[in-house]
Amino acid sequence: MAGKANTLTARAVANAKHPGTHKRPVRIGDGGGLYLQIAAGGSKSWLFRFRLREKDREMGLGAADPEGRSGGVTLAEAREKAATARKLMREGVDPIDARQDEAEARKAADAAATLAASPRTFKSVTEAFLTDREGGWSNPKHRAQWEATLRTLAFPALGKMPVERIGTEDVLNVLRGIWTQTPETASRLRGRIEAVLNFARVRGWREGENPARWRGHLDHMLANPRKVKRPEHRPALPWREMPAFMAAMLKREGVAIHALAFAILTAARTGEVRLARWREIDREQAVWTVPAARMKARKVHRVPLSPAALAVLDAVAPLAKEGESLIFPSAMREGAALSDMTLSAVIRRMNEEAGGELPRWRDAEGRAVVPHGFRSTFRDWAGETRPEGREVAEAALAHAIKGKAEAAYARSDLLEKRRPLMNAWGEWCGKAPAEVVKLPGAKAG
Which GO BP terms sit in this record (predicted)? Predict the structure, then answer.
């Protein structure tokens, strides 16, 4: 950093350009470790380069704004920031670490202020819990996993609830839908909910026993996650019965009806549908993007939306409040998601109304079908009637490719190859006359 300082002028900063002979950014020194960096596209930013503890480091100081009109950093401000960084270095402090510490302190103060000014909901208490534990995580990824699990799986049902009102049934409503599907994830989620509620009790924000505790409580209501085996074959409706089933179902009203229809038309898991939010829908491209945290394989899954699936979204559009809101909200509690049991109840009621010794909607063995079984129905239909092939059908179900050689070539999610498949599936399901009833308000099913 030795050498002449303050060699740049505001005019020189404004007039500086990238030579255009290569794509690497160019840097013009001002002295004292401060550089103006110009990207190949012409954007300008400030950079402070320094050496500390025998390591060369670089710290961005913000976008360059020679005239101070665009909200960026002027030359004078950049020099002041560089001088502050040099002062910290003389004190043996890494300026990058100091900036991170300052940002974390600001975040903690903001979280505390937000918590003090708002009701102590599960969401706000979770944020306070995560902030209080800053520095105690084994790595940043661990914290991110905690937050993602709670935000994706717990917040839809519990996020807006005051922590003092959360009871056992509320916790079970979150866990039941995924306990047998992804027992490892469900067990981790339970432990994290328990930790947040313990934190709330220690802070004096709730009293009584923790409704998410395992021993002597939930262990009497849920199977041991280590012993849970997901059923190999869930009762699935024969694919030739799908048009009649959809026609019968869509004569009914309610959010759960539309949620189940959307799950069928997208071949998605019910947990992915129940927690779907409007921000995940791209109407222009007709694509639903399911976040990795909600997928069994922990990979983002894009779903091409058929006209039939888009019609379901149109039907529930009156319920939409904002991009963060659930597409299929529960009518029982503000901001909560439907439960898996609510979707199962749709089929149960249809069978009860049909009467008979055997369920009207049943598999080949006479068992009443279940929501998850429609994925098998879709797979059977695709295998027997469509030309796209196994790879495309498996991609539509977001199934992991088992063979190493096959997986090595699976560089694409085959979105556009899946689109005609899903369109044809929507057309098949709609073969019988059916009308999707638009909702002026919400009903559970």
Answer: DNA integration; DNA recombination
